[in-house]
């Protein structure tokens, strides 16, 4: 009864999912996974939707919460901040009255070995946190399990920082529905024969004020993360399709990065390593050729 009363104080506006405690390092993903919009509590889009702030406290990228210490965003978006992570944080967008803080410091960033800045191929990054993001509404999102096809309708989130010429960015996140288009149509729109195999294209809303294209911001289908805002489009010209990284195509990099971190093969930042003894490196025999990652430290 006491627990129920305490949870009720955290639930001021509507019924939904309120967790009894903060996320811990060993919290299993399946116990804290987003159940869809029907499970949301209060005026938010789910506790998995995050934003990355640079060392000055300004918006840097949108992101999605994947595991206790892991956040998914766009490599192109986070790359310029890779050498200035001091003070950079990840902040949640769903709050309850029980939450005292809803952010976590960034520790390191992992990029695919074949990623090239301002190119579309493998435009994804896994951000490692020093501690889990706290909050009674904070939760994880599943990676995409469906094949992305033309005419599918998906939802993209953002704040409007890519669209400052048209409208002032909002302090709270917004969302809009976009329609996936074929690679052939995408090539015609961009007048280019080259579209990365890890990219998907979506038709932008005609009204620039409805367009959302903040780097790293999530693109979801149902209850799954199927894309992140990539590189190459702008809301000021909505005739050009939005470019997104296809999470299903880069899923292997994400999961192998997670496995490497959990196995102790990817160490924390130099500042943390000086304070703690490095664990012995484990030898893992992969069943198939692994996806190599770059390790960037502070």
UniProtKB/TrEMBL annotation:
Keywords from the UniProt entry: Disulfide bond, Hydrolase, Protease, Serine protease, Signal
One term of GO molecular function: serine-type endopeptidase activity
Disordered: annotated segments: 273-298
GO biological process per UniProt: proteolysis
One of the record's GO cellular component terms: extracellular region
Catalyzed reaction equations: Preferential cleavage: Arg-|-Xaa, Lys-|-Xaa
Signal peptide (from-to): 1-16
Composition-biased stretches (Basic residues): 279-298
UniProt domain Peptidase S1: residue ranges: 33-262
Protein name in UniProt: trypsin
Organism: Drosophila melanogaster
């Amino acid at each position: 009864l006491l627990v129920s009363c305490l949870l009720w104080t955290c639930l001021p506006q509507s019924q939904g999912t309120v967790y009894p405690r903060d996320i811990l390092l060993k919290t299993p993903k399946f116990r804290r996974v987003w159940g869809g919009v029907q499970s949301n509590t209060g005026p938010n889009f789910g506790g998995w939707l995050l934003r990355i702030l640079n060392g000055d406290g300004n918006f840097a990228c949108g992101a999605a919460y994947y595991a206790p210490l892991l956040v998914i965003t766009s490599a192109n978006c986070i790359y310029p901040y890779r050498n200035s992570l001091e003070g950079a944080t990840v902040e949640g967008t769903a709050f309850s009255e029980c939450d005292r803080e809803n952010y976590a410091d960034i520790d390191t960033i992992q990029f695919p070995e074949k990623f090239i800045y301002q190119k579309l191929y493998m435009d994804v990054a896994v951000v490692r946190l020093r501690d889990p993001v706290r909050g009674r509404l904070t939760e994880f999102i599943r990676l995409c399990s469906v094949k992305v096809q033309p005419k599918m309708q998906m939802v993209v989130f953002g704040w409007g920082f890519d669209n400052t010429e048209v409208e002032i960015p909002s302090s709270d996140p917004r969302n809009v529905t976009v329609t996936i288009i074929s690679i052939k149509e995408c090539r015609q729109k961009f007048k280019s024969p080259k579209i990365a195999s890890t990219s998907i294209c979506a038709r932008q809303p005609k009204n620039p004020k409805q367009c959302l294209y903040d780097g790293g911001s999530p693109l979801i289908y149902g209850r799954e993360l199927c894309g992140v805002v990539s590189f190459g489009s702008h809301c000021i010209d909505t005739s050009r399709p939005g470019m997104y990284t296809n999470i299903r195509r880069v899923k292997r990099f994400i999961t192998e990065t997670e496995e490497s971190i959990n196995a102790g093969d990817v160490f924390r930042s130099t500042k943390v390593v000086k304070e703690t003894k490095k664990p012995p490196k484990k030898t893992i025999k992969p069943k198939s050729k692994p996806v190599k990652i770059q390790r960037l430290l502070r």
